Here is the input.
Amino acid sequence: MHPDTPPPTTDDLSRMLNQVLDGTPRSSALGPVRVHSVATEVADRLMTAVAIGDYLPGERLPGERELASILDVSRATVREAIGRLQAVGIVEIKRGRTGGAYVRTSWTEATASAVRRTLLPRWPELEQLFDLRCLVEGLVARTAALRRTDRDLAAMRAALEDYARARTLGEEQAADAAFHGAVLTATGNPKIVALSRDMLTRVSLGFPVEPYGEDDPEDYQRALIEHRKIYEAIVAGDAEQAGSLAEEHFTLTSDMMRAMLERAQERPPQ
Here is the structure.
């Protein structure tokens, strides 16, 4: 967390907790889209989501109805925004039973401007959310270490094996989600699960998937080592060690998103 960024307040945390505990619908992360050109804002957010790896090359974006719900806009606005992504070469539209908008590439000449417009105004809040998420995931791992069952450990172990065997970014992302999902399940508390999912969605610009960046062998090796250490601490029932490791592990997301913003700022405005 940047030293000049104020920490999350008790009111911030209480509001998130109350929302989860009350079971009230989660609003679009960081607020609904509200700008002069809504389609431009939606296109920018989608381009940024692709840049940070919410959706990977070859992957299908959610359908119009789902995106409209996530972003709190009309389907017509989503359709226009997708058309803009198609025009700059980020997605291609396929027809038929498995049709939809498929990601072609994570970065084009139009991406840097979209990332700047999306992340810069939100960055102070994102810094707070990154910090808060690490604390929440520390709680998750500590609780899992105290409550895990043999079935939970088997699920974590299987996910670790899948991650170690992964050969594509998509396989890595799926195995990563499976591992952290198994840790979440081990808490035995649906409200903790809901809080963790809410934090994930908030740091992912409203999309309920882990930002995964680009294919970086160093990040992969770091994540593999850290997954194994978290698993070993949970197996040992060492709650404090598991929590500390998880807090450090989840800085991967903030590090990656910060690097993406820096990359966007290195390029001249479009």
